[in-house]
Specification:
The chain has 291 residues and is an alpha+beta fold. The protein folds into two domains: 1-154, Thiol Ester Dehydrase, Chain A (Roll); 156-291, Roll (Thiol Ester Dehydrase, Chain A). Helix content is 13%, strand content 33%. The protein contains four helices and ten strands. Strands 1-3-4-5-2-7-10-9-8-6 form a ten-stranded antiparallel sheet, with helices on one face. Helix 1 (28-36) runs antiparallel to helix 2.
Length: 291
């Protein structure tokens, strides 16, 4: 695949495009993720419920090496529009959990580009692409997902957004053990070749970050897993997250939860300076509901 000439296309032509994919929920990926997260007690035998968000271990974009761009992502074009901005990040996501996926299930995913929006930001032009995914098993619809991808120009210097202070009195907080091995293993498990997560010279010299970048999806996953540990009898019914400030592999990271009046929990990753990296919200299914 060659890069598409982004100047010759109308990005709105990509709205409405769809893509279908099938996979099977083999047990090795969740076993490997559990080991990566230092979790014990579940062997993920066939029939075991797959934790929420762990469908990210499947439907991996397996572009061959010759189709990889300089940042480690697949080259532009194809299903996603060929946006002529060098940086690409997963900015936010929204989820509704309808049913448990189970190890051994044959899975089917339908993806549709629902929106392409251009904006002007502090660092210049930005383009947001929203993709809606639905994941089904043989029992029916399991996960509804909306994913927001943002494209940005390559910066000349590190210019982070203004910091957001962490909650002063969280309902609970706990440290998260972050190191380069965790970043590398998560990249490998999700087949994410983006070099900012494992290639320190590239992250610093090309994308101008002060260190390796902690994945947005990994932060979202760590927050949801922590929320479930603090509410072991509850089942998530919906979840949303939004990245507000980069977090790095050398940061001292804390996970925080703040109880909401509606029964849900607001969640935050917080760096060593007390600044929020990601904020999220989980809503629980009613006690008489099961999946």
């Amino acid at each position: 695949m060659n890069d598409v000439n982004a100047d010759a296309v109308n990005l709105q032509d990509w709205v409405g495009r769809t893509e279908e994919a099938s996979d099977q929920a083999y047990p090795t990926p969740p076993r490997a993720l559990a080991a990566t997260l230092d979790q014990v007690g579940t062997d993920y035998a066939v029939g075991t419920p797959l934790p929420e968000l762990w469908h990210w271990l499947y439907f991996l974009p397996m572009a061959p090496g010759r189709e990889i761009g300089p940042d480690g992502h697949p080259k532009r074009g194809g299903f996603l529009p060929p946006i002529a901005l060098e940086r690409r990040m997963w900015a936010s996501g929204r989820y509704v959990f309808r049913d448990h996926l189970r190890v051994g299930d044959v899975l089917h995913k339908t993806s549709e580009i629902t929106k392409v929006a251009e904006k002007d930001g502090k660092t210049g032009r930005m383009v947001f692409v929203t993709v809606r995914h639905t994941v089904r098993s043989g029992r029916g619809l399991a996960v509804e997902e909306e994913q927001d991808i943002v494209y940005l120009p390559m910066p000349k210097t590190f210019t982070p957004p203004p910091p957001t202070k962490a909650p002063e009195n969280p309902s609970w907080s706990e440290p998260a053990a972050i190191d380069p091995v965790l970043l590398f293993r998560f990249s490998a498990l999700t087949f994410n070749g983006h070099r900012i997560h494992y290639d320190l010279p590239y992250a610093k010299d090309t994308e101008k970050y002060p260190g390796l970048v902690l994945h947005g999806p990994l932060q979202a996953l760590l927050l949801l897993e922590a929320a479930k540990r603090h509410a072991p009898d509850r089942v998530p019914s919906s979840y949303s997250f939004r990245a507000v400030h980069p977090v790095f592999g050398h940061d001292r990271v804390t996970l925080m939860g703040v109880a909401r009046d509606d029964g849900g929990v607001d969640l935050f990753t917080v760096n060593g300076d007390g600044h929020v990296g990601m904020q999220a919200t989980v809503a629980w299914a009613a006690n008489d509901q099961s999946r």
